[in-house]
UniProtKB/TrEMBL annotation:
Pfam families, sorted: Acetyltransf_6
Annotated ranges, domain BioF2-like acetyltransferase: 147-285
Xref: InterPro entries: Acyl_CoA_acyltransferase, BioF2-like_GNAT_dom, PEP-CTERM_FemAB-rel, PG_Glycine_Bridge_Synth
PANTHER family linked to this entry: LIPID II:GLYCINE GLYCYLTRANSFERASE
Name the UniProt record assigns to this protein: BioF2-like acetyltransferase domain-containing protein
Length: 344
């Protein structure tokens, strides 16, 4: 077995083929994710794989985030909710772990983080009480999918339908970014650079769509960027206007996406993504009938280091969050990417 490094801006077909066939892989393991992040924010990517007799038998995508504000880290996968190693056997995993430790030392990182869906290492420092993921099987019959939505949430979807909302597919992320940037400002979070959205759409092509909800007058009120991976639909970046809640636009949006994914993309799994435990987003997803499943984020720490706690629930960030909510949107959109590129 040999340890090798992929240049993600060259031929990635063997890497991507392995990801598409591996049962534990996610859309974030695809080489397109790293290219979009690197091209839009300038981060170095270390895409490590193990080769045996000319075939890949394990891999881990790592993105290097070096920041004065938030430290020096390697993350699999940065700016994504999942990642970590995927492998065929324990020997391949051992080689990946060994190379991760070597690279962590060479880059002098504070920590290396693997954002695993399930536990992999029994002896690594782990966070498994912060985030949950929400996934659910879909029926090929959308009438059945509507019935599966709990009664109160189904009423919200029907409320949006009664307002004569309509869902359209946008070719470009401009309307999405306008609503997303306002939404994250209102939450007190810095927005990612607009270039990231353009790069993701370019890299993933037809496997990335932007669904936007309009009123009967054509006014956009909510929008979401979604990825398609095998038979999975993965909504990721979403936002809405101040009018969205009264119109139940977000409820209508996710139902429209679910129905579209089934009828046009033949999807059989809806991946509602990650939410912090105990938050409004966590409750919103449970209201749809999705059951939370703990995510297992595992770490290699520098000697004497502690588990990082870079999340909005950390009390030391509360003043910054309160201040950010009050910023005029143009200023937040100008300054935000300078900060968010370091969050990972």
């Amino acid at each position: 077995m040999q340890v090798k490094m992929l240049n993600i801006f060259e031929d990635c077909s063997k890497w991507d083929d392995y990801v598409l066939k591996h049962s534990a892989a996610t859309v974030y393991h695809m080489s397109a994710w790293g290219r979009a992040v690197s091209a839009s924010m300038g981060h170095d990517c270390y895409y490590i794989y193990i080769e045996d007799k000319g075939e890949i038998c394990g891999l881990i995508p790592l993105i290097h985030i070096k920041s004065r504000l938030f430290g020096n880290s390697l993350i699999s996968v940065a700016f994504a909710t999942n990642g970590g190693p995927i492998f065929d056997n324990h020997s391949a995993l051992e080689l990946l772990d060994e190379e991760c430790r070597r690279l962590s030392s060479a880059l002098n990182v504070d920590f290396l983080e693997c954002r695993n869906m399930a536990a992999i290492h029994d002896d690594w420092p782990t966070k498994n009480e912060t985030y949950s993921t929400f996934r659910k099987d879909l029926s090929p019959d959308n009438e059945e999918n509507m019935k599966e939505i709990p009664r109160k949430q189904r009423a919200m979807v029907r409320k949006g339908i009664k307002f004569d909302l309509k869902a359209v597919i946008d070719a470009l992320p401009d309307r999405l970014f306008s609503m997303y940037s306002e939404s994250v400002r209102n939450l007190g979070s810095p927005v990612f650079p607009k270039k990231l959205f353009y790069c993701l759409k370019q890299e993933f092509g037809d496997n990335c769509e932007i669904l936007t909800v309009e009123t009967s007058e054509g006014q956009p009120v909510s929008s979401v960027m979604t990825f398609y991976f095998r038979d999975e639909v993965v909504p990721y970046y979403g936002g809405g206007t101040n009018e969205a809640r009264a119109l139940a636009a977000n409820d209508f949006m996710y139902w429209s996406l679910m129905a579209h994914a089934v009828s046009h993309k033949k999807c059989r799994i809806f991946d509602f993504g990650r939410s912090k435990n105990g938050t409004g987003a966590f409750s919103f997803k449970k209201n749809w009938g999705f059951e939370p499943r703990a995510l297992h984020y595992e770490f290699i720490l520098k000697e004497g280091g502690k588990l990082p706690d870079i999340n909005p629930l950390n009390p030391k960030y509360q003043l910054m969050i309160k201040t950010w909510k009050k910023l005029p949107l143009p200023i937040a959109n100008m300054v935000g990417p300078l900060i968010s590129r370091s969050l990972g």
